[in-house]
Amino acid sequence: MALTFVLLGMLSFYSSFCQDSGTSFFSVEGEVLRSLNLSVNDLHKLKSTELKAKDKDGTEHNFKGVSLSEVLDSAGVTLGNQLRGANLAKYVLVQATDGYEVVFSLPEIDPEFSNEQILLAYQVDGRALQPHDGPFRLVVPSDKKHARWIRQIKTIKVLFSKS
Ligand SMILES: Nc1nc2c(c(=O)[nH]1)N[C@H]1C(S)=C(S)[C@@H](COP(=O)(O)O)O[C@H]1N2
Ligand SMILES: [Mo]
After folding, report:
1. What is the atom index within ligand 1 of the atom nearest the CA of 57?
2. What are phi and psi of 5, to 5 degrees?
3. Residue closest to 20 by CA, chosen among 162, 155, 154, 144
4. Which of 14, 107, 140, 163 is most buried, judged by most C-beta within 10 A?
5. For 81-92, how does the pLDDT look when each residue is reduced to its tens digit (9 = 90+)?
6. Which of 61, 145, 150 to mutate to test the pocket of ligand 1 (most atoms within 8 A of CB)?
7. Is the CB–ligand 1 distance for residue 146 below 6 Å?
8. Strand-by-strand arrangement of the 101-105 sheet
9. 130-158: per-residue pLDDT in tens?
10. pTM of the full predicted structure?
11. Strands (E), the chain
């Protein structure tokens, strides 16, 4: 009996750990040098970042992922010394599977402009994000509201604003 519980526990841990780690992708596209399709396994190859932040209920969690600037950098987005002139009119549209969308400007993502951390998280408290939240979600600790903590990220588009 006890063994059954232990085995079931191990199985559920294993499946949550492995869940979608290589089969779910989000894309980075638009004004990029290289369009990317990234899985959790691909993110493991980029520099990881961990930070503590409070969720909407005020509970602190340890989030692990890759900073959004690193992800955009790997697609060749104009950050750093390229973020000037006309490139300052680009914005980042993040889209989720449920149709939810949020935008960021490039300067608020770029560490040369801003000290704010925007994390593309794939783990919370040492576990893969659950389907309701993940596999990929933004964590934006500097926002006082959680509306841009977009869950179930499907696409990240870099676009030129046109007026
Ligand atoms: N994909 C997606 N992400 C989303 C939302 C949504 O409707 N869809 N709602 C946002 C809003 S308004 C808030 S307040 C937070 C809520 O985070 P929670 O689900 O962890 O409480 O998620 C944000 N991320
Ligand atoms: Mo919200």
Report:
1. 21
2. -65, -40
3. 154
4. 140
5. 999 999 999 999
6. 150
7. yes
8. 36-38, 26-30, 153-160, 90-96, 101-105
9. 999 999 999 999 999 999 999 999 999 99
10. 0.89
11. 26-30, 36-38, 49-54, 60-67, 90-96, 101-105, 119-124, 127-128, 137-139, 153-160
Q: Enumerate helices (H) and strands (E) in the chain, giving the number of each.
A: 4, 10
CA distance 25 to 120: 13
Whole-number Å distance between alpha carbons of 59 and 162? 40
Give which of 149, 145, 124 is closest to 137, Cα–Cα. Answer: 149
CA distance 65 to 51: 9
Both tokens of 48, joined, read: 């990881």
Amino acid sitting at position 119:
L
- Tell me how far the alpha carbon of residue 11 lies from the centroid of ligand 2, in angstroms: 34
Provide the token pair at 151. 């869950």
75 has a pLDDT exceeding 90: yes
Exposure b/e, 83-112, CB count within 10 A at least 16 = b: beeebeebbbebbbeeeeebebbbebbbee
Spell out the domains of the chain, with CATH numbers in brackets: 2-160 (3.90.420.10)
Phi, psi dihedrals of residue 66, rounded to the nearest 5°:
-125, 140
The CA distance from 67 to 127, in Å, is 18
For residue 141, is it left (φ>0), alpha (ψ between -120 and 50) or beta?
alpha
